[in-house]
Amino acid sequence: MTIENQTARLAGFLYLTVILTGLFSLMYVPSQLIVREDPALTFHNISSSVQLFRLGIAGSMLCYIAFTLLPLVLYRLLKDVNGTYAKLMVILALISVPISFINLQNKFSVLTIIEGAGYLKTLNAEQLQSQVMFLLNTYNKGILIVQIFWGLWLFPFGYLVYKSGFLPKILGVCLMLGCLGYVVNVFSRTVVPDFSDYTIADYITLPASIGEIGICLWLLVMGVKNKKIGPVPID
């Protein structure tokens, strides 16, 4: 196996780690524990399944660690296509990591409330439930902010995939469209309070999902056979 294929497979593995841990922590765990319209039930669910909530936090940490390494590995693979775009891809991806980790503090604060810290005994049940929902909503707003960079890095990444000559162009197009979808989604949810009620809200990030899952599987299974680099990169 060539060094390029080893790099591609490593990138595919890291991408798969990001996808699986992201699905677990951002979709599965909340679907099992959080009921937006019912603070009491949400409090009860988390209290009775604290370990699952903790696993969700741990999953997020693994996701962000893998996402720190992913653009660095992709840079090694794609820097000869266009050095400037490769650097931009890394910068935009890495900006999201500290924001994501800081945002996790909201979930640790939920744990503090759920596990009944002594200084919280002066608060009644309704107040505690309200605090938990406030922290969870604040966490979701943080995710909305970080989605800007989850989207922006996809444009230079998609461009590099499209121009590479050794990765499918259609996946590059999907990634670039995914950037647009993420950005539109963030601003729409910020400006239009009930944007999530619109049908388009369920599909606007679909190109990103197709592009990211597709490139993940391609790198993991196919690698970069017949890799050919043309002119010297523009830095």
UniProtKB/TrEMBL annotation:
InterPro entries the UniProt entry points to: DUF4386
Classification via Pfam families: DUF4386
Keywords assigned by UniProt, alphabetized: Membrane, Transmembrane, Transmembrane helix
Transmembrane segments: 12-35, 55-78, 85-104, 142-162, 169-188, 200-221
Protein name per the record: DUF4386 domain-containing protein
